[in-house]
């Protein structure tokens, strides 16, 4: 495409009829100048100005005029630092920040599936969250704001935000994070394993700096939160967990999707006002991490008496215990849930307990649970099936097993067609076994072989 064609596309002019080649060079240059002038003179009336007029730009306040922060320098340059010091008694929803000081580190290690955390002091945690120039990651994405939080020696909770006022200040921010992380023992994030930590690792590589985060054990709250509460929350976003679990409701919070544009506007205009929402959003994320850590760890020691948790949460925590190989702890939580007023949670807990007893060959305990469940609900498919299998394969009481299956078949409780086929197959098999046992002279009730007494025993 020629330059004239490109100009015609930009100006929107229609293509003129072909002219003879007799046009001289002066006329061509004149035509090009006219077209360029037309492009330059165009000013769309509805396009916002990124740069305010020079007079107004001088009147914009500095960051330190609006925030409790200051410029900080290190060997790699300067950046802006904002500190927010919170009393330990301050709350984030239903949780106080100083509850973190007495955090059960065994529970924390369980959440992270990392036994190293059980040996740490709860106050050596580093809570971390980033705000970036993009949500997709990649080498072109910059973490322009790194928010961190930790407990000070006096019990207050410090939120420190490291802000790169331009791309050139990134290295100074990363170096400052190095210094902070060196004094901490473990890391707490939300979805950090998938996003924040990977992004920062890339930025450290590109800036040829050592990554201080790789050596820290990492508790990513997203994964245990999803496992413990996913059964009763609509999604696993941090703001959803805050509302559903912590009863904390953000007012006029900035959506994460708007954060990158706020930063790009700052780079163009140097107007700090739109950034205030970004700093507030990041600060709330940090305090939410602390409160959520307390809430997640607390469920393992609730003993079923804490109003902060639903009985179904105890069942989810028990399943996590089982996955981590902590069967006794799982049974304890299931016992608590089995005594709850929630019929659904109680049913799930007793079913799970019976299977644990079955696995451990504690048949007496398992049978008691199955019989209790069937007594409460004669159409309990789980209890009927387990008892039928128990009598068929353990006691040899084929008649009782057939009665249990026959009872389910006659009442026909709602079930998928495939499940019905399985019950029909079980019924047919038991019928056949009972008939064969009678032919062999075997007692269907006891499984013992019948015998004819000798003549001297008759009468």
Provide an overview of this structure.
The chain is of the alpha+beta class and 459 residues long. The protein folds into 3 domains: 63-300, Nucleotidyltransferase, domain 5 (2-Layer Sandwich); 303-349, no CATH class; 361-450, Serine Threonine Protein Phosphatase 5, Tetratricopeptide repeat (Alpha Horseshoe). Helices cover 50% and strands 11% of the residues. It has helices spanning 3-11, 25-41, 54-59, 63-66, 105-112, 170-181, 192-206, 222-229, 238-246, 259-269, 275-298, 311-323, 327-338, 343-359, 363-376, 381-395, 398-411, 417-439, and strands at residues 69-74, 77-86, 91-92, 95-96, 125-132, 143-151, 157-163, 186-189, 218-220. Strands 1-2-7-6-5-8-9 form a 7-stranded mixed β-sheet, sandwiched between helices. A hairpin with a 2-residue loop joins strand 1 (69-74) and strand 2. It starts with a helix and ends in a 20-residue tail after the last helix.
What are the salient characteristics of this protein?
Nucleotidyltransferase, domain 5, disordered C terminus, single chain, about 50% helix, seven-stranded mixed sheet, exonuclease, 3 domains, exonuclease activity, alpha+beta, YprB_RNase_H-like_dom, Serine Threonine Protein Phosphatase 5, Tetratricopeptide repeat, RNaseH-like_sf, about 450 residues, two-stranded antiparallel ribbon
């Amino acid at each position: 495409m020629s330059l004239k064609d490109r100009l015609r596309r930009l100006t929107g002019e229609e293509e003129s009829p072909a002219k003879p080649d007799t046009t001289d060079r002066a006329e061509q240059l004149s035509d090009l100048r006219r077209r360029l002038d037309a492009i330059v003179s165009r000013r769309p009336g509805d396009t916002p100005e990124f740069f305010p007029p020079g007079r107004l730009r001088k009147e914009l306040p500095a960051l330190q005029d609006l925030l409790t922060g200051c410029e900080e320098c290190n060997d790699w340059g300067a950046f802006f630092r904002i500190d927010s010091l919170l009393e330990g008694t301050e709350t984030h929803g239903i949780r106080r920040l100083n509850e973190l000081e007495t955090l059960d580190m065994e529970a924390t290690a369980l959440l992270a599936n990392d036994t190293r955390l059980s040996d740490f002091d709860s106050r050596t945690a580093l809570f971390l969250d980033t705000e970036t120039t993009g949500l997709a990651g990649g080498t072109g994405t910059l973490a322009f704001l790194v928010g961190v939080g930790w407990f000070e020696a006096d019990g207050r909770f410090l939120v420190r935000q490291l802000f790169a006022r331009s791309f050139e200040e990134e290295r100074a921010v990363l170096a400052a994070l190095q210094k902070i992380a060196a004094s901490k023992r473990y890391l707490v994030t939300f979805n950090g394993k998938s996003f924040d930590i990977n992004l920062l690792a890339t930025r450290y590589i590109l800036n040829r700096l050592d990554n201080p985060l790789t050596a820290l054990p990492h508790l990513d709250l997203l994964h245990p939160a999803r496992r413990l509460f996913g059964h009763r929350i609509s999604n696993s976003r941090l703001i959803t967990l805050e509302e559903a679990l912590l009863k904390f409701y953000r007012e006029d919070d900035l959506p994460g999707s708007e954060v990158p544009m706020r930063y790009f506007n700052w780079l163009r205009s140097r107007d700090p006002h739109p950034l205030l929402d970004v700093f507030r959003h990041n600060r709330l994320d940090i305090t939410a991490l602390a409160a959520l850590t307390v809430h997640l760890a607390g469920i393992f020691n609730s003993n079923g008496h804490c109003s902060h948790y639903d009985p179904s949460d105890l069942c989810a925590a028990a399943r996590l215990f089982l996955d981590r190989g902590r069967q006794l702890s799982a049974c304890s939580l299931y016992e608590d849930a089995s005594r709850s007023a929630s019929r659904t949670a109680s049913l799930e807990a007793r079913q799970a307990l019976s299977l644990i007893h079955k696995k451990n060959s504690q048949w007496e305990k398992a049978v008691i649970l199955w019989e209790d469940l069937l007594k409460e609900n004669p159409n309990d498919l789980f209890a009927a099936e387990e008892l039928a299998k128990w009598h068929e394969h353990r006691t040899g009481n084929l008649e009782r097993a057939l009665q249990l299956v026959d009872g389910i078949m006659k009442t026909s409780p709602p079930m998928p067609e495939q499940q019905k086929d399985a019950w029909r197959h079980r019924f047919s098999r038991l019928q056949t076994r009972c008939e064969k046992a009678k032919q062999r002279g075997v007692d269907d009730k006891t499984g013992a072989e019948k015998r004819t007494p000798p003549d001297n025993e008759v009468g």
